[in-house]
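Section 3.1: Structural characterization of target chains.
Under the original work plan, the team committed to producing a structural model for every single-chain target entering the pipeline before any wet-lab resources were allocated. The record below documents one such target. The sequence was received from the expression subgroup and is listed exactly as submitted; it comprises 607 residues.
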Amino acid sequence: MDLKKIIFDKKKYKYYKIAGVVIVVVLFLWFLVIYPFITFKGYENQVEKAARRYFELNDNQLPTGTRIKTLSVQELFDQAYLQDDFYVPLTKSPCSITESWVKVRREDGEYKYYTYLKCGVISSVVDHKGPEITLNGEEEITLDRGATYEELGVKSVVDNSDGKLNVDDVKIDASDVDMNTPGTYEVKYSINDSLNNKGEATRKVKVVSRLENVVKEDTGDSGVYSGNVTNNYMTFSGMLFRILGVDGDNVKIVAEQDVSNVNYDAIDKWLDYYYEHIPSDSRKYVVKNKYCNMTLTDENVASVTDCDSYTKEANVSILSATDLNKATAADGTNYLYPQSMSWIRNEKNENEAYTTRSFYYGTTAKYMSFNKNYNLGVRPVLTIKGDSLIVDGDGSFENPYSIGDFTKGKAKDKVNTRQSGEYISYSGMLWRIVDAQDDGTTKVIADATLSNNGVFVTARYDTDDEVNVYNPKQNGNVGYFINNNTTEYIDMDYFVNKEIEVPIYKKAIKYGNESSTKKYKVRLAAPDIYEMFTAADFHAQNTSSYWFINSSRRENTKAVMAEIGTVLYGDLYNYANYGVRPVGFLDKNCTIVRGDGSYNNPYIISK
């Protein structure tokens, strides 16, 4: 074999290989760089020629002095100065004719044309960017309704071709800002560079109503709502409240109705339980406060408006006589007097404390004292940050103020993710969420007393026992009736059997004083006096008496809510009939279909 020939053949192969690589690179450059560039430059030339032809025929359109005339490629197509479409090289995607243009300016006695064409990632090498505007202050500011908008101005303007520009040349348009109407508005800033490229910036101005300011505007010098006001409703933590007034820089609110019924000596302990049911996002708005708790007499309880004794700082309390008296207008009207009998934070002596309601039988007084052992209404009072922003509502019952403290449920959300106090419509009835259970079920209580074709469903203890305690397994027992008979009037498809604990008391029925409990598995039960939302709801269409689950081993000692909204505290004999307000547990798979969980727009659910 000839060695020289082999060496020669290897060198020739090497040269062929290099040549092949060069050819591939050239072809690559041609198809991906040179050809697209040549094609694009051809487009640019066509556009400029079309523009020149346009101005030859429309020379009156040529700019004078230092002005600049901009002619869009769209316009050149519309007027048939251009006919063939332009495509991004090597693709079927059209070039942008709306973002492309030709600008004409007179320079040194002659007209000079600047062409900008955008074809995908390829664009003309000509100044087409407007100046960059940098604002003083934040790009989004929040101002109170009724304040004066003060322009913060422009910090700097820089153009990529012209360099720094004069900030005083920036046009500022704040004409859309309405400081008397809450909303988000835009202030627009604009300036052009030497080639008339426009630079823009926007500042958002949020006009808001701060809770404290709205209350001050409504209440004037007094700082408190009084009389028969109807514009101080507010939702908070899924519940409806009334705004009492300002307290320093903050705002005091009170539950619109009693939440539960508690013996006076246990109110603070019960309020801790209540506070635990406030959603964590809502608690962020709560401010600890000291609340009036003076000891009063029958002679001064209805007139006192100044306080000289306060509780320790607390997250939640109840109304005091001073709160109620300040809310009384000159004509004697007062939106705060409840239809139920509610405790106020004022003792008469070591054994008695005061209550209030809109009327008392046999007297015109608005206050009466009762033994502290009685289970009477409790309406929580909270202090909310005054700088909270009102995001919705007008303060009416139908459209209460909202500060956005929690997110309402939406379609497909599980019911067990919702908040205590929200409303559900099911089986032709309105229900209220008590709380979600660890097993995923949701405890709910009927908003109204159960009725059938307009007639209230009633029950009584029909046994031979001298002492009757609530027992869902005992025939003739109120618990048995509620668990078995009331299901005839309620669609049970979404309810599940659930084990409950029945509290049993030795003597008096008092919060936390049950002597024992018994467990039963039930479908429906009576409400517990001390749980959330078991007090009478005076917005309910059907209001009657109803049994509580609480009962005592002492003869004839049971608990019932009377038709007038007050827990009966005397002996309840077995021949007495009272209504039913059922409590049940919704299946863990129940989801929301629509609604926002309010009284006026409850959640509609499915499974």
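Residues 3-57 form the longest helix (55 residues).
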